[in-house]
Design brief:
Strand content: under 5%
Helix content: over 70%
Order of helices and strands: HHHHHHH
Distance between the termini: 28 Å
Number of helices: 7
Radius of gyration: 21 Å
Number of strands: 0
Length: 155
């Protein structure tokens, strides 16, 4: 279901956006979302019921896995910078591409290790990776991203 929504959005998004910008102005790409946002603002508070226990701001800040979050954000940013620079800004074998790529991979490994054994309340729960269907969805999402980026290079 998730991959179907992604595939549908990947195909229909540019088509609808292209039609809007070709037959009117680019602003309609944003205006078309207003009815969906309005529907969400009305329906979500009526349907979603969250029971949160009252805690102080200090307790909430102490609950956050700051080390894991910083490791994850910096390493994935470094990895994505390397991937976006590779073959465009710099060659794949240049140090400008390899250093952020290697640091990103090392950072992701350190994040996984920290989340597994170091964090008291990890933000990436291990249960996210227990089911085969979840892992298959992650692999399909990666494959779809690779296929879209490869197809964009050829057109």
């Amino acid at each position: 279901m998730v991959q179907s929504a992604w595939a549908l959005g990947t195909v229909l998004g540019p088509l609808i956006g292209g039609l809007c910008t070709q037959h009117s102005t680019w602003r309609w790409v944003f205006y078309i979302n207003f009815p969906f946002c309005g529907f969400g603002f009305v329906v979500v508070p009526l349907v979603v019921r969250l029971r949160m226990k009252r805690t102080s701001l200090r307790e909430k800040l102490l609950r956050v896995d700051w080390v894991g979050s910083i490791l994850f954000i910096t390493s994935t940013t470094s990895f994505l910078i390397a991937i976006s620079w590779a073959g465009v800004e710099f060659a794949w074998n240049s140090f400008q591409t390899l250093v952020p790529l290697i640091l990103g991979v090392i950072g992701v490994v350190l994040t996984i290790l920290w989340e597994r054994w170091g964090a008291k309340k990890p933000f990436l729960r291990q249960s996210l990776f227990y089911t085969t269907s979840a892992v298959a969805a992650y692999v399909c999402a990666i494959a779809q991203g690779l296929l879209v980026s490869i197809s964009e290079e050829h057109f």
